[in-house]
Amino acid sequence: SSKNNLPPGPIGLPFIGNLHQFDSLAPHIYFWKLSKKYGKIFSLKFGSTPIIVISSAKLAKEVLKTQDLAFCSRASHVGQQKLSYNGRDMIFTLYNDSWREMRKICVLHLFSLKKVQLFSPIREDEVSRLIKKISQQAVTSQITNLSNLMILLSSNIMFRVAFGIRYDEESHESERFNFLLGESGEMLTSFFVSDFFPSLSLIDKLFGNISRLEKNFKGFDEFYEKLIEEHLNPNRPKSMEGDILDILLQLKKEKSTPIDLTMEDIKAIVMNVLLAGSETSAATVIWTMTALMKNPKAMKKVQEEIRKSIGNKGIVNEDDIQNMPYFKAVIKETFRLYPSVPILIPRESMKKSTLEGYEIQPKTIVHVNSWAIARDPEIWENPEEFIPERFLNSDIDFKGQDFELIPFGAGRRGCPGMALGVASVELALSNLLYSFDWELPYGMKKEDIDTDVRPGITMHKKNSDQENISTCCHFINHQFEQFNDFTKYDEESHESRRFYFLFEEAATMMTSFFVSDFFPSLNWIDKLTGLTNRLDKNFKELDEIYEELIKQHLNPNRPKSMEGDILDVLLQLKKEKSTPIDLTLEDIKAIVMNVLLAGSETSAAVVVWTMTGLIKNPKAMKKVQEEIRKSIGNKGIVNEDDIQNMPYFKAVIKEAFRLYPSAPLLVPRETMKKSTLEGYEIQPGTIVQVNAWAIARDSEIWENSEEFIPERFLNSDIDFKGQDFEFIPFGAGRSGCPGMALGVASVELALSNLLYSFDWELPFGMKKEAIDTDI
Ligand code: HEM
């Protein structure tokens, strides 16, 4: 491109621009690769929206400092607008008077250094709870899933800072809050087709994104409402005094701010604090641990520094941290290599301006790739390597003055919560390193530690419960010198968790809505939403597992237990060529996939639904437990043969299959030829959905059809085997489920033993009416 024109960039297509090429899973890496080809400033188009990407410190300074005022607005995004009460917040709102006032309020009243110090007891309390929890896990030989613990720690800290109270971690409220928080994290960055093509908003609806967003918004709003009500109560707990919600409500009441704060403004700011504060700090701690596990020398050095400095004190306090230069350098190096917000939060230009001689139009989205800048070999020596020493004799800091290192952005819209975020990161990390020695789960090498990322504004390490270290750091508590044998924890093994994860992914992929199924030419949308990539990855990883298992099965010295298993039978049939068609290895893998997928999810779901039905219906629970316990007596376990003599138990299972069939629409069929149904002509290639769920609730057939009444099956011949069409949880006919007997056997055995061995009750504080049957 010539000067006074757009910066260079890849050529796009009419209408969609470069959207079909975009990698929404890891935009920082995608942009980084393009910068190598097109330069430190290049351009793209998403639909008709112009995009500029900056990848040098010099240009970052231009955008974030010299010409800050021209580049300090934000672009509109469906998810962000909704969750910020139509941009009444600070992070996602356009640059305008209201943002300026909000920012002043926040900087002055919420994020000042004084406030950061005021919240110090909350951080110290949460971190010491964390250390205690990990110690307990050590004693019981559990692997520590650091990712989960860190996310919980940060969200607990931010929750207390915002609302002054603490939910018990096992409580219903805490779980719900963390679920909502995770959901909003996704919603704020999800690709909404309507952001770029308003006329295609139907697609967002179809994907289910809009209803997910509405649900998330409503869930959070109810939370805020409840907490506001509690804060306004004169008898509120003391701990609520001075928390962020309290400060904001006070400012509103006193009308002491230049703009009158509305309740929606307050909720929007609280949302910012919760979201911006939790994910980012957690991700930074996890990345630091990941980097240290991959670099044992740095790990040793930083632990020595901390332990020497703290001695036997037992815990690191915030004041101690100032005397640990190597520790500080480790954190800087993590912010350099793994900035948790790698392309900052996109800016939008407000007026015509010039960058490197190129003309930038108003309403251009500007991404500053801080991740790429911090790996620029022109600035950093061995940029890909984790070398904290580089910061020991250097003045470079991450505070927004040195544009080669800007994990918190800079300028007018730079992060105002930096001090709060860094305080949490430093305290959590120093204590983790002080209190424990960390090692990888059994069987994992440091080369296996990946640095894959999860999509989202916050660059999280992927928590796929598989190859990741820091998701599962096994540790030795150095104070108690406790060594644990992890090999006995089979289910906790690397392989088991990896397989389980892949498996769940596969189940999701099988039913996800792919735009290209209906509009093949729009397949780039599936790419953009990340579906194609997720699918390819899932396929590849499962394929590797099948390959490995096939190899093990073909080994003459394989374990005895492999003889006669399904894979063994199939390999044998292939070898003997004893089937009418020659089985290929792909046929075998495909069948194994069918068995695994069709067999596990469905049976698990039935057991869960039956327990749900019973807990909601204590009388049925009592009756079925009495039947089982009477029949089994003191034997200690229910065996499969015992089950035949338990008519009420059988009726309970039937009733669960009726109300909660685990494949409610069966598997859709496609017509093969023209045919007639009820006099209507059905064309070949028509998809036919049989709603087994609806049929089993048809009030013309079933009395009180919505109620869980196992008794209805006691004197009835109706069964689910595909002969009684009012009740077809396994389908029927040619493609009815061939695995029914296998599935029912698992369900019956698991369920009867659960009911025989234990009495079940709801978690503390939950009533049976609160049990939802959401799916
Ligand atoms: C390790 C922790 C954190 C990191 C890495 C981080 C990073 C960032 C980045 C990169 C931005 C965008 C800056 C830009 O566009 O130039 C940002 C904005 C923001 N951050 Fe943070 N942040 C962290 C912690 C926090 C905390 C604890 C809070 C508040 C409790 C917070 C509140 C905000 C807000 C409100 C904005 C929007 C500012 C605006 O648009 O005016 N952040 N943060």
From TrEMBL:
Keyword match NADP: no
Entry superkingdom: Eukaryota
Residues reported in the UniProt entry to bind heme: C415
One Pfam family recorded for the sequence: p450
Annotated GO MF terms: heme binding; iron ion binding; monooxygenase activity; oxidoreductase activity, acting on paired donors, with incorporation or reduction of molecular oxygen
Topology within the bilayer: Single-pass membrane protein
Compartment list: Membrane
Role played: May have a role in maturation, such as during flavor formation or other metabolite production specific to aging tissues.
PANTHER family listed in its UniProt record: CYTOCHROME P450 83B1-LIKE (PTHR47955:SF22), CYTOCHROME P450 FAMILY 71 PROTEIN (PTHR47955)
Protein name: Cytochrome P450
Taxonomy of the source species: Eukaryota, Viridiplantae, Streptophyta, Embryophyta, Tracheophyta
